[in-house]
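ugh ok fine here u go
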Amino acid sequence: MHIDEVIQLDSYSIAKEQKQEILLEQLNKLTLHHRHKCPAYDRLLAAHGVSNNPVTEIRDFFPLPVRLFKEFDLRSCELEEVIKTMTSSGTTSQRVSRIFLDRDTARYQSKVLVRIIQHYLGKQRLPMLIVDTSAILQDRKMFSARGAGILGLSTFGRDHTYVLDEDMQIDFELLNSFLEKYKDEKVFIFGFTFMIWQYLYQPLLESGKKIHLENGVLIHSGGWKKLIDQAVDNETYRAALRVQTGLSRIHNFYGMVEQVGSIFMECDCGFLHAPTYADVLVRDFLSFDPVPFGQEGVIQVLSVLPHSYPGHSLLTEDVGVIVGEDDCPCGKKGKYFSIKGRIAQAEIRGCSDAHAFDKR
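structure:
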């Protein structure tokens, strides 16, 4: 199949056998492509004894550590073909990843993101409440992960309303106007995990105010470290927001700037799902061998989308566990999993976490 055919497939209806066949073909093509176009990637694989022969199992794709994107400019296209350079989140003292997108890769990522998100929001653009400040959108050529996340999800909304001012305070006049205008409509709320808690939930709680978003769908992401430090897990987070805002449809997603587009959305059962265009493995902390379902380890993510940079098989710095495959009670096909945290000594890198760290 051509990549354009793959990205037209339904996000969650392809079962294991067919999906593995599709992924093997696409990922093998990408490995050869990146070895030919990115000399540094080719040297790295050669140094680890990786041959040019196609692999026959997903577990055999070499996982490139995401940290390398902080140290090197890795791209598989000519510099003049780059239309967008994206950077990861990080504190002011950290290096950030630089991800180079050409026109085709940006198109693939955009189309797949649409297919995934439409499973949760539907095909109609909804009134959109953004729990952030519009000041985050500055340089349209050099996107931060936070700005890119907002812009990427903004395509699913209309009447974009930023609920925070430049001082990260709730603009209650603007918020109340939005809520009154769309009180009888389905609305889309987006923000980064910690920032929703810090700048929306807590001010509402402290002021004794409640808002009515019973018709809303919240999609959030961006790091849990600061919340876990405060003993706020996913269940606590969802329950608290429901009390203060009336929200019941809340979906976290796992993703990173190094593989934008191939996001792993949380289903109604509370599990993250690998869509048709991506996969996830969990590897042992020491041997890096794949571990069985149910056992914790380091997460490896794979995606058919990155053509302008060697990001199709990445070893993250996150700890997780795969729960199962093709049998989630929500009905979605593919592997489903949970994130347990960061590996020891890993940098703060989530959009929310990095923002919170820099504000201390």
